Structure formats: structure tokens, C-alpha cells
Amino acid sequence: MNPDLEKPRMIRKRLAPLALAPSENAIAVRLVARAGALLLAALAGCAAPITPGAGFNEALSARGTPAVRVTLPAGGERAIYSNTFGQFNQVIESDGSGKVVRVYNSLTDDAFAQIRIGQWRAEDVRAVFGRPAETTVVGFAEKRARVWSYRYRQDGVWNSLMHIHFGEDGRVTEFYPGPDQLFEPKESNK
């Protein structure tokens, strides 16, 4: 028998003891995914920080194309960058002269508290928080509502989703936080 044809079989036999049960495999995949996300976040943090007073266009060139870019009422601009899991974003705001005046994360409890029920529309929410992590439609018949959900860290700690509901007129009808199932432990069928 050809020894080259036997090599794959020998390798499979050697690796067989390393095979994981399906539930352990899922855990390993999640751990590797989280480790990869942490590595990406750490590498993203290696870029030079953008500080107030810098040129807005230079900041955008250094950071790349934002997920959302809007013109502010006072004449400046806002650029919103989201990270991999969307729990944090980087918002860069400029004044009318093109200088950076503020750099911050808008996915916080304090920022969500600014939402005004019955006044804010979808474009207002998008201009402050960027694109939602998830969009769904809930309800039935005349009680249907669009829901935008943003991943964030509630109280700076808890993996959460802020759910923002929009009525038929496109205005915010309610918003509230809830647990983020992406980060909840999965139950096995043992």
C-alpha cells in the first residue's frame, strides 16, 4: 500500500482523541470568537487617538469611512464608527470650521436617556447612535411596530440591547433595555 495515502488516515487517528463533544465544540468556537474580538479591539486601540482641535477631515482619513455621517444643525458634522460587536462606538463631532470638538461613545445609558418619545424620528436616532445592531417588526395588525436594537453595556457593565420602538408615524413610541442573547450562555441538551 502507498504510504502517502496512509498519511491522512494516520493524522485522523492521532487527532481523534482531541475531538470535542458538540457542546464543547460550541463553547470552544465562542471562546475563540471572543478572543479574536478582543484582539481586534486591542489592535484598534493602537491607532493614534483623535483629540479635540484636530482637523475633522484628517481624523476621518486616519479612521476610515464612518458607518454614519451627518451634518449638525450648528454647521459641524458628526461621524459615527461602530466596532465589531457594536457595544461601543466612536463618535467624532466637528464645528463649522472643520475642527474636532468632541470624541465620545454614544451607546450609553445617559445618551439613550436623551431620546424623546413622540418627538424623535428614526433619522434622529440614527444621527445620534448610528446604525442599529438588529432591526425587527413586532406586534400584529394595527399594533405593529419597527424596533431598532443597539448593543451596549448597560451601566458600563451588563451586555444589553436598547430596544427603540417606532410607531406608524415613524416616531419613537418607547425604548427600554434588555439582556443581549448574543452574550448569554447557551444551554446544552444533556
Please tell me about this protein's structure.
With 190 residues, the chain is α+β, with helices and mostly antiparallel strands. The protein has two domains: 22-105, Beta-lactamase Inhibitory Protein, Chain:B, domain 1 (2-Layer Sandwich); 106-190, Beta-lactamase Inhibitory Protein, Chain:B, domain 1. Helices cover 29% and strands 28% of the residues. It contains five helices and eight strands. A hairpin with a 6-residue loop joins strand 2 and strand 3 (89-94). The protein starts with a helix and ends in an 11-residue tail after the last strand. The relative contact order is 0.11. Residues 10-18 have low confidence and may be disordered.
Order of helices and strands: HHHEEEEHHEEEE
Mean of all residue-level pLDDT scores: 82
How many strands appear in the DSSP assignment?
8
Structural class: alpha+beta
| Assigned CATH class of the largest domain | Alpha Beta
| Helix residue percentage | 25-40%
SSE layout and pairings?
Layout: H1 3-15, H2 22-44, H3 56-63, E1 68-71, E2 77-82, E3 89-94, E4 100-104, H4 109-112, H5 122-129, E5 134-138, E6 145-154, E7 158-166, E8 172-179
Antiparallel strand pairs: 1-2, 2-3, 3-4, 5-6, 6-7, 7-8
Q: What features would you highlight for this structure?
A:
4-stranded antiparallel sheet, Beta-lactamase Inhibitory Protein, Chain:B, domain 1, alpha+beta, 190 residues
